[in-house]
Amino acid sequence: MSPIPGSGLAKGLAVTLRTMTKKTVTAQYPDAQPELPPRSRGVIGLFEENCTVCMLCARECPDWCIYIDSHKETVPAAAPGGRERSRNVLDRFAIDFSLCMYCGICIEVCPFDALFWSPEFEYAETDIHELTHERDKLRDWMWTVPAPPALDPGAEEPKEIAAARKTAEKLAAAQAQAAPLPDPTDPPQGGAS
Ligand code: SF4
Ligand code: SF4
């Protein structure tokens, strides 16, 4: 059966009439910035102070886009008669974001909390080589990583915070013991002359 002449036009006009009064959903980026959830996968930040160069992230990355170079350094014995130790020193840490598929595996597997998601996403380049972010750039992204969400009120105190608090309490107690007691015969300080 052939369609009624003009029915297509009527359908089109009906859609226009139905939607013309609705609020527009088109975001005028970059004039209007999107409101992203704080944990969005924008770019990866490296907290290199935590990195032990264990290479786990580079080995697990499905795209092989994490490049790490390091060398070994000998640390002298902490006490006389002790043994020297060796440790890895990071020389290069880079991520090629032109290959990265934002799976987050590197962040999940890092045993030392050295990699974090940042919601920053505006790092497009005209030269693909610029998408390989080296160590310093990855370190700078750490400034854009949002603070972790607050703990549940009934949650156990994190081990690191508990240890730091105990150390601070011990130090304060030691300082209070070491401080000389005030002499009761001394004139009061700061009085009117
Ligand atoms: S997010 Fe995935 S693809 Fe990207 S660097 Fe990490 S492991 Fe590799
Ligand atoms: S898994 Fe973590 S600690 Fe190990 S090399 Fe990667 S970033 Fe460094």
Automatic annotation (TrEMBL):
It comes from the Bacteria. Its main location: membrane. [4Fe-4S] cluster 1 binds at C51, C54, C57, C110. Signal peptide: none annotated. Gene3D superfamilies: 3.30.70.3270. Residues 156-169 have a biased composition (Basic and acidic residues). Keywords: 4Fe-4S, Cell membrane, Iron, Iron-sulfur, Membrane, Metal-binding, NAD, Quinone, Repeat, Translocase, Ubiquinone. Binds 2 [4Fe-4S] clusters per subunit. Its EC number is 7.1.1.-. SUPFAM superfamilies: 4Fe-4S ferredoxins. [4Fe-4S] cluster 2 binds at C61, C100, C103, C106. It is a peripheral membrane protein. It catalyses: a quinone + NADH + 5 H(+)(in) = a quinol + NAD(+) + 4 H(+)(out). Residues 149-193 are annotated as: Disordered. It is an enzyme of class 7 (translocase). It is found in: Cell membrane. Residues 42-71, 91-120 form the 4Fe-4S ferredoxin-type domain. Belongs to the complex I 23 kDa subunit family. NDH-1 shuttles electrons from NADH, via FMN and iron-sulfur (Fe-S) centers, to quinones in the respiratory chain. The immediate electron acceptor for the enzyme in this species is believed to be ubiquinone. Couples the redox reaction to proton translocation (for every two electrons transferred, four hydrogen ions are translocated across the cytoplasmic membrane), and thus conserves the redox energy in a proton gradient. HAMAP family: NDH1_NuoI. NDH-1 is composed of 14 different subunits. Subunits NuoA, H, J, K, L, M, N constitute the membrane sector of the complex. This is NADH-quinone oxidoreductase subunit I. It comes from Streptomyces tauricus. The lineage of its organism: Bacteria, Bacillati, Actinomycetota, Actinomycetes, Kitasatosporales. The gene is nuoI.
